[in-house]
Amino acid sequence: MSSKGEQAVRRVVIAGGGTAGWTAAAALVRQLGALLDITLVESDAIGTVGVGEATIPTFRTFHALIGVDEREFMRETKATFKLGISFEDWDRLGERYIHPFGEVGKSTWMGDFQHMWLMAKDRGEAGELGDYCFEHVAARAGKFAVAEGSKINYAYHLDAGMYAKYLRGKFSPMGINRIEGKIDQVEQDGESGYVTALVLEDGTRVEGDLFVDCTGFRGLLIEQTLEAGYEDWRHWLPTDSALAVQTENAGSTPPYTRAMARSSGWQWRIPLQHRVGNGLVFCSRYQDEDPAREELLGNLEGEPLTEPRLIRYVTGRRRRAWVKNVVALGLSSGFLEPLESTSIHLIQIGVMRLIQLFPFDGNFEALATRYNAKSEAEFENVRDFIILHYTLTRRDDTPFWRHCRDMTIPDSLAARIELFQESGCVYPAAEELFKVTSWLFVMMGQGVMPHHYHHMGALLGDQRLNRALGSLKANIAAAVDKMPTHQVFIDRYCRAP
Ligand code: FAD
Q: What does the entry list as the binding residues for L-tryptophan (predicted)?
């Protein structure tokens, strides 16, 4: 089936115009635009969730796919660069570690770098693990630079509201029919239950063959119409509320996100070019809204520019993200708290998978089964990695942290922690989002040290092992030394052409 007129699925209707809606629209028009008629419906009256978002390096892969120019994107969304996340007070009060992007040291097929480092450390010959990771050292020094051919691994902090507008301005002219209006009804075929049209408040009918539900937490099509079901994960991730507030930029623009543990949750600090996004994620079972607001406002750098905005959520996953001819993306497909900045990534990977599994001939069912299985695995992998931060805490100063320390965790995660403790091995599956470096820094950052390790370092001999580690550390330090500060680089890089 190759010519446009013969396809069973040609009219794609995207419901919702937040980050999810415009990300889906941009990718679909850019990749399959010649084969589809794309309409996006959004309501200015309802608005979007954007709070000042942090991302992960896969964001750049997605931008390469849809053809986004980095300087233009950074100027339009007031973005800054991100090399990792600084976790403060998570293990014990007063302690801090950085989870960097990029890789630590050099691994071989036999085993990963940490085995050599652990051996050298046992002999008193190694520096801190972070000294062997370029992004870690640069983040600590507040430095940043991208150069042609540079291998630095990074992501961005951005203003999600501006990002949706940027995508709309750039990709609408490529063939997206945008309709402003509130969806009032969802029409279904009486026999099959497939969605046939959205009816807006002013009576406009928007017909389609495939519908992408990007309506946010409400899940207008996937849940309110098709009742896909929701798996509630609050027993493992108990936070259920966030207060978000913007502050002026008080002069500190580190190239990393800060995640600062508080009495019943944690606080984020996301530096943008023009302001700073802040918020407190907390658990309403342990903290009411007023004390949470007080805790947030009492811990801000810089004057608030807005009133704190309360967002309630239920951590978990839509049981099926694709049902009949509706695919949910973004908040309508589930929500994992932003501790590792994964929501926008899950939108991007979701739309890429939809493009790979696109049901051109109306062959929905087999493709939906595959899509849903992958989506489930992705959500669960991210979920386990986020739980890791909570379960490893050694804090016992509040009921919330005692609960986190003592709660039962998924067997898959317990097995992984035990493997690391016993052997120094991490061994993530190839398709997992978080690789060895991520698991290493969080586990060691929160006090898990392996009892044993692989003896691959002994094959080198003491002298060569020490020389290899010493020169790696010195080369990284020298390279970072030459880099400009993050702020200087942004000022230069984002200047209008
Ligand atoms: P929304 O932004 O809610 O958009 C919904 C859209 O649907 C809107 O356009 C609305 O107008 C439209 N709509 C709804 N109902 C109707 C209707 N009846 N008729 C017409 N239109 C309708 N992600 C990250 O990657 N990194 C982070 O650091 C991060 N931090 C976050 C912090 C918090 C506290 C929260 C809650 C989320 C965070 N996220 C983060 C998630 C991120 O904000 C969202 O994943 C992302 O913005 C996508 O939202 P969305 O487009 O799915 O929903």
A: 340
In this prediction, residue 172 has a pLDDT band, given cuts at 50, 70 and 90, of very high
231 phi/psi in degrees, rounded to 5? -95, 115
- Supply the DSSP string of 77-129, one letter for each residue: HT-EEE-EEEEESSSSTT-EEEEESS--S---SS--HHHHHHHHHHTT----G
Asked if residue 53 has its Cβ within 6 Å of ligand 1, the reply is yes
Distance (Å) from CA 234 to ligand 1 centroid: 20
Name 485's bridge partners.
143
Q: Which residues are catalytic?
A: 82
How many CA atoms does the CB half-sphere of 147 hold within 13 Å? 8
344 annotated ligand binder: yes
Å from CA of 100 to ligand 1 middle: 26
Q: For ligand 1, is residue 176 a contact (CB within 6 Å)?
A: no
For 175-190, give the DSSP string: TEEEEES-EEEEEE-T
Residue 2 has pLDDT above 50, yes or no: no
d(CA 185, CA 200): 7
182 is in an annotated binding site: no
Which is the closest atom of ligand 1 to the Cα of 270? 28
Q: Binding residue per annotation — 349?
A: no
Q: How far is CA 38 from CA 14, 44, 172, 211, in A?
A: 8, 19, 10, 10
Residues 350-402: pLDDT tens digits?
999 999 999 999 999 999 999 999 999 999 999 999 999 999 999 999 999 99
Q: Is 488 exposed, middle or buried (0-12, 13-18, 19+ CB in 10 A)?
A: middle
- Local structure of residue 48 (DSSP, 8 states): -
How do the domains of the chain map onto residue ranges?
Answer: 4-52+159-234+315-382, 241-312
> Going along 191-325, which residue ranges are E strands?
195-200, 205-207, 210-213, 230-232, 241-248, 257-262, 265-271, 275-282, 309-312, 316-318, 322-323
Rounded to 10 deg, the angle between the 19-32 and 160-171 helix axes is 30
Task: Report how far apart, in Å, the C-alpha atoms of 76 and of each of 39, 70, 162, 167, 253 are.
Answer: 24, 10, 7, 10, 18
Cβ–Cβ under 8 Å, residues 204 and 181 = yes
Res 50 pLDDT > 90: no
Amino acid 251: pLDDT: 75
Domain 4-52+159-234+315-382 indexed as CATH 2.30.30.140: no
Residue minimizing CA distance to atom 14 of ligand 1 = 215
337 touches ligand 1 (CB under 6 Å): no
